[in-house]
Amino acid sequence: MTDDARTAPRGVGVVVVAAGSGTRLGAGMPKAFVPLAGRPLLGWALDTVARVPGLRSVVVVAPSGLADTGAPAWAGVTLPEGAVVVPGGAERTDSVAAGLAALDPACDVVLVHDAARCLAPVAVFVRVVDAVRAGAAGVVPGVAVVDTVKTVDARGVVTGTPDRATLRAVQTPQGFRREVLEAAHAGGAGATDDAALVEQLGHDVLVVDGDPRSFKVTTVDDLAHAERLLAGA
C-alpha cells in the first residue's frame, strides 16, 4: 500500500433506495413518499442516515417522476448536507447502480438502505460500518427467524424444513467495501439484494445483529405498526 493510499480521505457513502412503487400499500404514490406521522417515510429514513458517524456522501434514488426535490411530495424531507438525488431504474439493481455511480469517489465503505425501513436505528448502521472496517467484504444486519419455515415445490408440497437456528431475516442497511460492490454490480444479475450479488462473486457476507425496528413498511398493517412505534405505544 502506498503512502497516498494510507492517507487518502475515507468516508461512508449511503445509497438510499426510494424508487419502489408501493402498490401493496395502496396509497396511490411511491412507497417512500407515503406519509408516516405527517412526514414521508423517506424523511424519517434520512433523519437517521444523517447521523451515521463518518458520513461523507448520500445519494437518494427516487422514482423518475419524483427526482425533483421541489415537488410537493418532498415536503417534510430534509436532505443531509451535500446529498444528491438521482432517478431510479427499471429494477432495484439498476437503481442501486445509479446511486453508487453518483457517490463521492472518496467513500470507501458503501451502505445500501431501503427507505421503507424508515425506523432502522443508527446503531444498526454503526454495527454494519464497523464490521466492514474490520475487514468484511459485505455485511448485512439480520434477525433470528422465530417461525418454522418450509421449502415447497411448484405444487406447494413441502420438500424440507430448514433448521431455523441457521436462518436470518435480512434487513438493511447492507454494507460493503466499495470496490467489492462495484464489481458485484458490474458482473452480477438476478439477485434480490446487493449481498446476493456479492455472494455470486465468491465473497463471504457477514451477518450482524439487526433490530426489530428495521422492519420494512410494505402493507397498511406495517404502516400502522410504525405509527404506534413513533407514538411510543
Please describe the structure with a list of short key phrases separated by commas or semicolons.
single chain, 233 residues, alpha/beta, Spore Coat Polysaccharide Biosynthesis Protein SpsA, Chain A, 8-stranded mixed beta sheet, two-stranded antiparallel sheet, 12 strands, 28% helix, globular, disordered N terminus
Characterise this structure.
- Residues 1-7 have low confidence and may be disordered.
- The protein is globular.
- It is built from 7 helices and 12 strands.
- The longest helix has 12 residues, at 122-133.
- The chain is an alpha/beta fold and 233 residues long.
- The strands form 3 sheets. Strands 1, 4, 5, 6, 7, 10, 11 and 12 form an 8-stranded mixed sheet that branches. Strands 2-3 form a two-stranded antiparallel sheet.
- It is 28% helix and 24% strand.
- It has helices at residues 3-7, 41-49, 92-102, 122-133, 178-187, 194-200, 220-231; strands at residues 11-17, 35-36, 39-40, 55-62, 84-87, 107-114, 138-144, 151-152, 158-160, 168-170, 174-177, 205-209.
- It has a single domain, classed as Spore Coat Polysaccharide Biosynthesis Protein SpsA, Chain A, CATH 3.90.550.
Q: What are the segments in which pLDDT stays under 50 over at least 5 consecutive residues?
A: 1-7
According to CATH, the fold-level topology is Spore Coat Polysaccharide Biosynthesis Protein SpsA, Chain A
Instruction: Please trace the helix and strand order, writing H or E for each element.
Output: HEEEHEEHEHEEEEEHHEH
Distance between the termini: 52 Å
* CATH class term: Alpha Beta
Judging by the overall fold, what is the CATH architecture? Alpha-Beta Complex
- Name given to the CATH homologous superfamily: Spore Coat Polysaccharide Biosynthesis Protein SpsA, Chain A
Query: Major sheet, described briefly?
Result: 8 strands, mixed
Total beta-strand segments: 12
Q: Which descriptor suits the 3D outline? A: globular
Number of domains: 1
The number of helical segments is: 7
Strand share of the residues?
15-25%
